[in-house]
Amino acid sequence: MKIGVLALQGDFAEHKQMLLRLGVDVVEVRLPRDLECLDSVIMPGGESTTFAKLAMRFGLMTPLREFAHQGKALWGTCAGLIFLAKDIGRDQPTLGLMDIKVKRNAFGRQIDSFTTDLQIESVAGGPFIGVFIRAPSIESVGANVRVLCALDDGTIVAARQDNLLATSFHPELTQDTRVHEYFVNMTKACKPGYPDVDDPAL
Amino acid sequence: MLQQDKQTGATNGANANGANANGRHKEIGTISLKRGLAQMLKGGVIMDVVTPEHARIAEEAGACSVMALERVPADIRKDGGVARMSDPAMIVSIMETVTIPVMAKCRIGHFAEARILEAIGIDYIDESEVLTPADEENHVSKHDFSVPFVCGARNLGEALRRISEGAAMIRSKGEAGTGDVVEAVRHARAILGDIRRLKGMRRDELYTYAKEIQAPILLVEETADLGRLPVVLFAAGGIATPADAALMMQIGVDGVFVGSGIFKSGNPAIRAKAIVEATTHFNDWKIVAEVSKNIGEPMVGINVSSLPKEELLATRGW
Description:
The structure holds two protein chains of two kinds. Chain A is of the alpha/beta class. Chain A has a single domain, classed as Class I glutamine amidotransferase (GATase) domain (Rossmann fold, 3-Layer(aba) Sandwich), CATH 3.40.50. Chain A has helices at 12-21, 48-57, 61-69, 79-84, 178-190, and strands at residues 2-6, 25-29, 40-43, 73-77, 85-87, 98-103, 114-118, 128-132, 137-141, 146-150, 156-161, 164-167. In chain A, the strands form three sheets. Chain A has a seven-stranded mixed beta sheet with strand order 2-1-3-4-12-11-10. In chain A, strands 5-6-9 form a three-stranded mixed beta sheet. Chain A is globular, with a radius of gyration of 16 Å. By secondary structure, chain B is an alpha/beta fold. Helices cover 43% and strands 12% of the residues of chain B. Chain B has helices at residues 2-15, 31-41, 52-61, 73-79, 88-95, 111-119, 156-164, 182-199, 206-212, 217-226, 242-251, 260-263, 268-280, 285-291, and strands at 27-28, 45-49, 65-68, 102-107, 124-128, 149-153, 169-172, 232-235, 255-258. In chain B, strands 2-3-4-5-6-7-8-9 form an eight-stranded parallel barrel, surrounded by eight helices. In chain B, helix 3 (52-61) runs parallel beside helix 13 and helix 11 runs parallel beside helix 13. Chains A and B meet through helix 1, helix 2 and strand 7 of A and strand 1, helix 2, helix 3 and helix 13 of B.
């Protein structure tokens, strides 16, 4: 299995490190040709405006959309979540793949950044440490989107739509690989010809 | 007040019952959150801006953050006199203009300026040698703040001393406002070279080395184990071209600050965009060559070796 990490800007090295710990081959994606032979792609934390500028200049928007339309898995953390969304409430290019309405910097500026314990659906084994840094939130989701995690006040911070996964927080900044394992399983399930995730041959 | 908020958060957490207490107990201002924001800036360019209009140009070019200040270092150098923290109103006007994180500078040791910047909600404070130092012995005790700090360093010892005081990000000092990259290269090579040497040392040699470079042994050990600084390292001071940015990335820094190099050049918008592109694609020389074409006049610059010693900014800080 080969997973790409969008490496235009941001904490892509941290995602790479987590995947290497899980024994996955990792490719840094900066140009359309880097997408060849990949089974899935992670879009890291960073600045979503920077991602958009660089992805447009180097022709990555359409290839990334086609990648998703082939049914391959995509996961966006923080800025990556913004980049995945259909509606971010302002004039800024995104991939527009996931049927979610996103609020940027929803919790405030850096001094409002926080960590908190989370219960995430399908992530077993106790609370997961959510690291929220100038994080976005998901204000609302479409009918085809499943909420995987919401804060007590109802704020949605993780969601899934078929082959697309979005988290407001940064699992790559923890030592806990459970959400990355979830995405590796998702990658397997989305791969054509591998219908059964629990297949012992995997 | 921020301290109080932290305690309130802890009390709420203690009262929370049941496993499903998502987001009820929040911790703020932790070391991992401070270092974490710097991790989000990696592979990016942080640009000095003096007006909201500059900030818009920087964001449009793809900057991952901006440094709000009244004068770029080249002008501070030219004007002379005491250089202080910028007017908070001017900084706030830039914070209101862009959605990317905004940094601002305080003088070395001037914790009151730092508190003011924290009070207006700045995202990162640069305790900077570019401004006139306010304390010739002590730096700000940065652990006491909820807002993260970045500090300049010329070698590993200086970097680790700043980290021990609470800096959550390190940059080379370089020689700001010159457009001459030589000092940024010297400092980045010194920091990264010191770490390479450290990796080859036996455990029992680290104690003497820590003493030699005047750094806390625990941070020396942590750096040896990690094989890198425990925080993000950026290049700063004299970067003026896409090639300069690619050079610094190749040497091994995580990203670059560009100060006077953009808005003192012939065409800031085009140059800013080119430096962003060269920083992302620093391993692809065809792209670096492409983005270096037709970007107008660079800032004129000052040869650092022609500067008298008393005009060097990098020697400030201890």
